[in-house]
Amino acid sequence: MSVQAEQPIVVTGAAAPGRAIPRRRRRLRAFLRNPTFVAGALILTALVLLALTAGLLFPADPQDMVGTPLLWPGQDAEFPLGTDSLGRDVLARLVYGTRASLLVGVAAAAIGLAIGMVVGAFAGFLGGRVDAALMRLVELFQTTPTFILVIVIVSITEPTIPTIAMAIGLASWPTVARLVRAQFRSLRETDFVMAARSLGYSPLRIIVQEILPNALPPVIVAASVMIANAILTEAGLSFLNMRDPNVISWGGMIGDGRDQLRTAWFLTALPGAAIAMAVLSLNLVGDGLNEILNPRTEP
Amino acid sequence: MRMGRRIASTLKRTAIHALPTVLGIIVLDFLFLQLMPGDAADVMATEAGSATAETVAALRHQFGIDQPVLTQLANFLSHLARLDLGYSPRFNASVGNLIMARLPNTLLLMVSALTLALVLGIVVGSVMAAWQGKWPDRALSVVVLLFYSMPGFWVGLMAVVLFSVKLGWLPSDGNETIGANLSGFALVSDRLTHLILPALALASFFIAVYARLTRAAMLEVQRQDFMRTARAKGLHPLLIQLRHALRNALVPVTTVAGMNLGNLLGGAVVVETLFGWPGMGRLTLDAVLGRDYSVLLGVLLLSSFVVIVVNVLIDLLHAWLDPRIGATE
Lengths: 299, 329
Known about the structure:
By secondary structure, chain A is mostly helical.
């Protein structure tokens, strides 16, 4: 279905009518015309750039003591966002913290999506006993509190970035599995799948090449929400001190700053605001994608 | 009469369905916890500082964790059949008593947070849907999106800064004033002031979830035929919205609330630690850190049980909200 169905293109200037514009460019226009998506994407791009260039912007080790401890933001021009109780530059630590949050978020979502898509695709496509068994497994995971599961998995291993991402991914796949299963169940009865079957395509080829691309839009929306949730979970974990002590993370900064909550609350407020901004950007992207990919959701 | 039959059939269906799930949870959790490196004996030996290999082995024998895994599982199951959750070596108490001592506090916190989230979320969502696209909708959307993006424990910390540190209105630690020996109304109000901030911290994310859901569901309902009929009958718009739209919109909202319950329990771990709330969440964290599997198993089991029970209640609620649900058996 074309995106044009709901939003007719307003022809500006001497531009050709909507039909003549190549499909891909029309898609791009739909993305660029959605203010929610654009706002989210802009913040997210900025955060990714910060994460990539952290080493260039702040060449000094952000774990080193560089100034007087507990300087308030604005008190010293050298440290615009102040210093923590160990005299470390808060701004530099915030920028480095972007890395851990985004890395864990993306990796965890990727793991969760991979497991969830495989389970959901098989359950939805095969149906019957396989479906019933897999859905039982999904139910098992969904009745167990996700966060407690993550805590248990992290304590099985050492808390490092890969294990934290793995734990969050392992605990978050059931939602995707349900979503993908529902998509596959409705798509497997469609005419084009029937055609593929009658051509003698193997089930795997039908799943991967025929159904999967059509099942993707809601999964893409879910992916952005999953990254957002993974970032929130990671923040909670590192707040509880389940984190790699050598990696700067926003949740950990909140945990450290909590001891000075009464005197220097900015140490808690700033990393929390950073988390909120990263999660907000992903939620904006998700909302925007939802509007673009499923135009019927808004009357 | 019909309601009674429906309740019976729902309960029967759930019992048949839930029993294998519970059994699966027990076995999976049990085997899963065996993967954790170290055990209670290790942790206690480390804390004691000077423990010989013999002492540790003796401790293991005393806790029954030197036996083969399957024997331990069989022991656990046979105790569980007698509603005995086992004994915690770390806390030196029976797991059942440990959990029961903490459960009321956690339930109080969770029920308060869930009620707060549902009431606020549904009100805000309905207001947004009623003024769709106009400024109240837009303004509230921004606020809701912010709450949707902020970590709950951080909202709690910021509330502590404002209400405890700056204004001095609310306490920020524990669930009652220690040593105050209050009774009657003073006790209730003391408990209540201790409850507000943790409940707010736990609820903040879910307020946003339910507001977004209610808005979407309310807008979806407006397009249904029965809404046109209700309008054509000349019913008061407010009555249409409350009795016809909201009633139907509540079905998806409560479904998600049931699915979120596990997350709420997980969130309680952080919030209880943050506010020094003596509940199950903190017990869980202590059990993980102390490698106390018996307590951890008990907590996991009980939380799954709570989730299943509440979902049965939600099923029944749905049957009442929308008589079409469960009518085709």
